[in-house]
Specification:
The chain is built from 5 helices and 2 strands; from the N terminus they run αββαααα. It is mainly alpha-helical. It has a single domain, classed as Nucleotidyltransferases  domain 2 (Four Helix Bundle (Hemerythrin (Met), subunit A), Up-down Bundle), CATH 1.20.120.330. The chain has a two-stranded antiparallel sheet.
Length: 129
């Protein structure tokens, strides 16, 4: 863990969110036969992991745009701005959005595979900052 007064980097904060999401799934969601038992905790973990993705994207865009950076207001805004810089990161975001935000958080998927794929996408995104 970071020292008491040491500033936390966006990368460290995103990793913390991802770890929290993993713990929610492991300790609370209850896994059996490739499905989670409690959708409430899946939604909570998906929202937490997706928040990590947004932290990463904000930092990535801040690095690219410098003083011109403003926080995007929608997923479309994130995607159109990413399109200018990195198509691979854009594809990862599209998957993470589908798996974590739509399937996980919004629809409450019970699929372990869907959640793992989304969280692995966020881990890949960490390499961009």
């Amino acid at each position: 863990m970071a020292e008491q007064n040491a500033p936390v980097t966006p990368s460290q904060e995103a990793e913390r969110y991802l770890e929290n999401a993993r713990l929610i799934l492991t300790e609370k969601a209850g896994k059996k036969d490739g499905l989670y038992a409690d959708v409430k905790y899946v939604k909570m973990a998906a929202g937490t992991a997706y928040s990590a993705a947004l932290l990463i994207l904000d930092e990535y865009l801040r690095q690219k745009e410098g003083i011109h950076f403003t926080k995007p207001k929608s997923i479309e805004d994130y995607m159109s701005r990413l399109r200018k810089y990195d198509k691979k990161l854009l594809r990862i975001l599209a998957s993470v959005y589908d798996e974590l935000h739509l399937a996980g958080y919004y629809h409450g998927t019970r699929s372990v595979d869907t959640m793992q794929k989304g969280m692995n996408g966020v881990k890949q995104m960490l390499n961009y900052i």
